[in-house]
Write a structure and sequence with these properties.
Elements: H1 2-24, H2 33-42, H3 45-70
Length: 103
């Protein structure tokens, strides 16, 4: 579980760094600056989408594992694992979490 969290954090930082490096190459003050800037962001739209799906799957995996380990106390407001919304453990998503041997 910790390895999956580390991997999701790493992929988010890596994709963010790739976008940031690309946008640093756009010179300020050129004509059409915002169009060039937007094109730089769009170059990494696939990578961002992959990272979003991966991180949301890891979130579902971790949330499921926490509920499995701690039972009903995992969704209690009095525990540090609970979110600030105080939900009953339902993510509101009908999508089943991806289960695999790794992340």
């Amino acid at each position: 579980m910790v390895a999956c969290l580390f991997a999701s954090e790493s992929v988010a930082y890596r994709v963010g760094g790739m976008v940031d490096d690309r946008l640093a190459l756009v010179p300020k003050g050129i004509p059409g600056y915002y169009e060039v800037y937007q094109n730089g962001i769009e170059e990494y739209s696939i990578e961002c989408a992959i990272a979003k799906v991966f991180c949301s799957d890891v979130l579902a995996l971790v949330a499921d594992e926490v509920v499995q380990i701690f039972g009903g106390t995992a969704t209690s407001r009095s525990t540090p694992r609970s979110g600030s919304t105080g939900t009953s453990g339902s993510t509101g998503s009908s999508r089943e979490p991806t289960r695999s041997t790794g992340c």
